[in-house]
Amino acid sequence: xxxxxxxxxxxxxxxxxxxxxxxxxxxxxxxxxxxxxxxxxxxxxxxxxxxxxxxxxxxxxxxxxxxxxxxxxxxxxxxxxxxxxxxxxxxxxxxxxxxxxxxxxxxxxxxxx
Length: 113
Prior knowledge:
This protein is mostly helical. It contains 7 helices and no strands. Helix 2 crosses helix 3. The relative contact order is 0.10.
């Protein structure tokens, strides 16, 4: 899996960890981990999942596809949030865009108040 090497390094540094500590936690050789972090080697999907779990982030964040670095656990959502998510997922792409635009407009209005 193509992981954003800067994200991998930044996550490690933000958590005040050494490459050796992360390698040990993931049960990989230090040299191999260094190659992942420098982008010399692609990270296998299974290991990418372990890294995401280790840092509690999404695979999208690791891959650089999202800037939101906190993974949301379903168990953390209340019933209203679960219902909103379920309904959102049922929308077609056009309506998802419209909903997101409305949310941004509401947030802007809310912030001005």
